[in-house]
Fold this sequence. Notes:
Bound molecules: guanosine-5'-diphosphate, magnesium ion
Shape: globular
Number of strands: 13
Mean pLDDT: 89
Structural class: alpha/beta
Order of helices and strands: HHHEHEEHEHEEEHEEEHEEE
Amino acid sequence: MPINAGYKYVAAEQEYHQAETDSQRMKALRNMLSTAPTHKGAERLRADIKRRIAQLKEEIVKTKKQGKGRSFSIKREGAVQIVFIGLPNSGKSTLLSKLSGKEIKIADYEFTTTKPEVASIKFENVWMQGVELPAVYGGYSDHKQGRQFLSMIRSADFIVVVVKEFKDIAKIQAELKKANILLRKIKRLRGFEQEMPHMIVTWKDFDKKNLVKNLWKAQKLIRVQTRVGHKIAPKPIVLPNGSTVEDVAQTIHKDMIKKFRFAKIRGPSAAFRDQQVGLEHVLKDTDVLEVFMQ
Length: 294
Ligand SMILES: Nc1nc2c(ncn2[C@@H]2O[C@H](COP(=O)(O)OP(=O)(O)O)[C@@H](O)[C@H]2O)c(=O)[nH]1
Ligand SMILES: [Mg+2]
């Protein structure tokens, strides 16, 4: 956050991050420029915004020259959306087929996948949406649809980077960096940069037994099932790690907290079967709880 930025600037920056089209992005950048602080300390920020406006103008011209191109939209489904990226022939289709059991065209020539391939990856009682994106290569951001794929990477929950060998990762990172996407531990925005949680999978890992389980664990989510008597809801509630009984209650019904007496827990977070706990109790993956109300 820049030094002493006013609320109008903050709003403009937010608008920029939420922009989905180039014209929305441009409008937001112009708003940022007009509301950015004018003092000396903010000089770099202003220069950065101007550079971005110039860059975006160039890109818009380029896109126009290339024609519209196809537009891909993928309906978000499942507990998380995971994009699979990598160089050409890096094994993206092979890995996604393995994880999902779905047949995806695999070929030993480059750029087999020219549009995103979607396959669901099932893990026990949840599933994750896997999306293979066409290969990342030098100039991804110049590619006709490359910029669309970059925005799909940004909006995903998680990235799987597929590489033959670990050393190939540098090329991917360099290409992502150009688009201000950084491979990091958690998803968050830092100024213009989008930090993305990720996992690197090399060919050596392909046959590891717990790949799907590890992919689920890397999402840092928990599944909790509610129970009424003997009936356990088959569909789990998915929440971030560290969620409490209160978080579960809130997703069920907002009045539940007011009338809450206690919950009975079974599963990894229970000290013993049917332990009675309060709203502040921290849950773990695969817990089952029954809520008792007044
Ligand atoms: N030996 C070996 N070949 C692989 C492996 N993974 C992928 N390949 C080969 O690499 C080529 C490209 O694979 P593909 O999954 O289509 O790569 P993509 O372009 O990244 O989707 C195919 O000929 C695969 O048979 C692997 O783990 N071991
Ligand atoms: Mg492929």
